[in-house]
């Protein structure tokens, strides 16, 4: 008997979820395409909170092993909040649901570009996120896509962090769609390389824990955004070439290491550089990640936001489709929610 597994039929009582996988500068994105109901809520912030209390099993199933891994990232598309937005999007990772994600926005925009019949000219794509409405853009005949981020601003500068067995580490706190602590890796003699990933993750976790009880973060408009999402280690010296301004390695959520330079992370960095007079309106720099792939980031506009000086960053990059999946959940599976190994 010839076996054909190309069209397997699973029992009807099993749960089925489909997804499309992409990567942006090496950072994965799993876009859920069916099998998850529309989350309830009047706005994207409410929908995010609904997912935190009702969709945790789904998140773990898709992000954790054996279907994902410790650094997996996902996106759930929703109905838009605003009339001029094409859709809403919620972002998920190994710890929960984030407020904004630049690499995911770039991937989603690239996906729209590949499905568009428009072959010339620049096109606008608006999407709603918990952090606000994002205006993305793409050209039908070009691979590079991008977005104009939410208002990004500096929160605190030169915050001392004392870690056990180490000298005092100084960091800056900025918001670029989420709050990050920015640490100069060169002051720690920290190599931002693939072979040093375990040390980077460990140190990022320590700094995040130390700051958790030290820094109080209050977003000007939405209290649910007021938390420290990650730690960005940067270096102006450890770059792959003269075209690079700096290198970023971000440790976010529960010790996830971003393969890209982090879209919201480079946005917050743009705000920091602007505050120090090192990046002006209309100027663009290239920031690379741990794989030496990266994003262009510039300041499209300066503004006031919540009584603070702020900037509107413009971020561009490239994303690629890697696969299409149909996931099944057998109700008799003893590890339905998966697991994480480091």
Automatic annotation (TrEMBL):
<comment type="similarity">
    <text>Belongs to the proline racemase family.</text>
</comment>
<dbReference type="GO" id="GO:0047580">
    <property type="term" value="F:4-hydroxyproline epimerase activity"/>
</dbReference>
<dbReference type="GO" id="GO:0050346">
    <property type="term" value="F:trans-L-3-hydroxyproline dehydratase activity"/>
</dbReference>
<dbReference type="Pfam" id="PF05544">
    <property type="entry name" value="Pro_racemase"/>
</dbReference>
<dbReference type="InterPro" id="IPR008794">
    <property type="entry name" value="Pro_racemase_fam"/>
</dbReference>
<protein>
    <recommendedName>
        <fullName>trans-L-3-hydroxyproline dehydratase</fullName>
        <ecNumber>4.2.1.77</ecNumber>
    </recommendedName>
</protein>
């Amino acid at each position: 008997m010839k076996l054909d597994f190309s069209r397997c039929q699973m029992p009807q009582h099993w749960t089925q979820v489909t997804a499309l996988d992409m990567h942006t500068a090496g950072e994965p994105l799993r876009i859920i395409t069916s099998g998850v109901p529309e989350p309830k809520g009047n706005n994207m912030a409410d929908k995010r909170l609904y997912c935190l209390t009702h969709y945790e099993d789904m998140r773990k199933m898709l992000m954790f092993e054996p279907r994902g891994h410790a650094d997996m990232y996902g996106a759930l598309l929703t109905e838009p909040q605003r009339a001029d937005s094409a859709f809403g999007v919620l972002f998920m990772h190994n710890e929960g649901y984030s407020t904004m994600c630049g690499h995911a926005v770039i991937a989603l925009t690239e996906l729209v570009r590949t499905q568009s019949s428009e072959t010339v000219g620049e096109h606008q794509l608006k999407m709603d996120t918990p952090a606000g409405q994002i205006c993305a853009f793409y050209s039908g005949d070009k691979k590079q896509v991008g977005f104009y981020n939410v208002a990004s601003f500096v929160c605190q500068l030169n915050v001392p962090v004392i870690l056990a067995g180490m000298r005092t580490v100084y960091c800056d706190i900025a918001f670029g769609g989420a709050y990050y602590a920015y640490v100069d890796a060169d002051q720690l003699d920290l190599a931002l390389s693939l072979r040093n990933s375990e040390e980077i993750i460990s140190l990022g976790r320590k700094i995040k824990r130390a700051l958790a009880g030290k820094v109080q973060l209050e977003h000007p408009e939405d209290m649910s955004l007021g938390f420290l999402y990650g730690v960005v280690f940067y270096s102006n010296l450890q770059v792959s070439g003269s075209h690079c301004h700096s290198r970023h390695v971000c440790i976010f959520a529960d010790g996830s290491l971003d393969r890209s330079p982090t879209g919201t992370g480079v946005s917050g960095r743009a705000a920091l550089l602007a505050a120090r007079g090192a990046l002006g309106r209309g100027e663009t720099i290239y920031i690379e990640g741990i794989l030496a792939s990266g994003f262009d980031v510039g300041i499209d506009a300066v503004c006031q936001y919540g009584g603070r000086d702020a900037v509107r960053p413009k971020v561009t990059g490239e994303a690629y489709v890697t696969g299409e999946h149909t996931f099944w959940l057998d109700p008799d599976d003893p590890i339905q929610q998966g697991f994480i190994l480091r």
